[in-house]
């Protein structure tokens, strides 16, 4: 990795940390240049525009999510994999950067750009959320095929329920029951997954 590549990677890492705290919409050329100790022109040499940098940060966030959440959760058993996935996902940015005030950058970006339907950022973050939702749904389908989950279980409904429990947790953990939020979230996930299992 040459100097330019290292600098770009550093910008993306700082951008992920910054957007996990303040939101992607606050990521600007000036803010990132100051954070990374670069001149504005020095930072611009790595990206075509602010939007280009924001899109690159979202791509980087997804690569880190795959590396630090999806990969460690992999298991041959769909129930075990889903349990591990949500357990790791609960506080993944806090654990990754060892900073308690961080939250999920994808959710922040989705909320911030929700009304900007023609924005490339809205398109990208929506695609990212849809990919994750599809991944969860696929694991539920595998659980049904393996006889672990009830054959009458609707995979889309179950995935929606699980996914939205995380969305609620990502917001509530910073507003109510902060001290025990992650523990309660994991217990609720386990309760839901248990309720899906085939009792026969």
From TrEMBL:
Residues 5-65 form the HTH tetR-type domain. Keywords: DNA-binding, Transcription, Transcription regulation. The keyword 4Fe-4S does not apply. Residues 28-47 bind DNA. SUPFAM superfamilies: Homeodomain-like, Tetracyclin repressor-like, C-terminal domain. One of its GO terms (molecular function) is DNA binding. InterPro entries: Homeodomain-like_sf, HTH_TetR, Tet_transcr_reg_TetR-rel_C_sf, TetR_C. This is HTH tetR-type domain-containing protein.
